[in-house]
Specification:
Elements lengths: L18 E10 L2 E8 L5 E7 L12 E4 L1
Antiparallel strand pairs: 1-2, 2-3, 3-4
Protein name: Protein kinase domain-containing protein
Keywords: ATP-binding, Nucleotide-binding
GO molecular function, one term: ATP binding
Length: about 70
């Protein structure tokens, strides 16, 4: 079943599978933040996993990135 936001383009976002999670560095009301690195370049980033109202904890469809 396709979700409404599946067709939304995000030209500055990479696929989360291109990153390796290194450690959990924070947690809050809206989600979790992980230290990660790009598998090819080694660039370190923070990945924020945002839990939406209708998603269960552990759903990986809600991951965003920040640099």
């Amino acid at each position: 079943m396709a979700k409404q936001y599946d067709s939304v383009e995000c030209p500055f976002c990479d696929e989360v599978t291109k990153y390796e999670k290194l450690a959990k560095i924070g947690q809050g009301t809206f989600g979790e933040v992980f230290k990660a690195k790009h598998r090819k370049t080694g660039q370190k980033v923070a990945l924020k996993k945002v839990l939406m109202e209708n998603e269960k904890e552990g759903d990986l469809n809600s991951v965003g990135m920040s640099f």
